[in-house]
Design goal:
The chain is α+β, with helices and mostly antiparallel strands. The protein is built from three helices and three strands. It has two domains: 33 residues, no CATH class; 43 residues, no CATH class. Helices cover 31% and strands 11% of the residues. The protein has a three-stranded antiparallel sheet with strand order 1-2-3, with no helix packed on it. The longest helix is centred in the N-terminal third of the chain and has 17 residues. It starts with 5 loop residues before the first helix and ends in a 12-residue tail after the last helix. Bound molecules: zinc ion. The site of zinc ion has 7 residues, from loops.
């Protein structure tokens, strides 16, 4: 699915509406607005998966990813400080 910047889309829609009203037309031309929105470049982004580090119940220094199950060792009891992302790509903010 293509993604566009919301602020840019709003500005484009406003400009499209101003042009229509400026020509004495009192209704909004939806096709013109869609045409303007179609001119916005598409962003190259990936969906963010969210996860969290779960603590092993037998060894408190071992945590595992809630998404992929990968294990890490962390003695600080705050693994997301040093491992904010898992190797699977999950953002550990859950
Ligand atoms: Zn993972």
């Amino acid at each position: 699915m293509p993604y566009i910047d919301r602020d840019t889309a709003i500005k484009k829609a406003i400009v499209a509406c101003i042009k229509v009203v400026g020509h004495g037309i009192t209704h909004i031309d939806a096709l013109k607005v869609a045409e303007c929105l179609g001119e916005i470049p598409v962003a190259d982004i990936a969906e963010v998966r969210h996860g969290h580090w779960r603590q092993n119940m037998y060894c408190k220094r071992i945590f595992y990813c809630s998404v992929c199950g990968r294990h890490i060792e962390d003695a600080t009891q705050n693994p997301k400080e040093f491992f904010p992302y898992c190797h699977c790509g999950a953002k550990m903010d859950g």
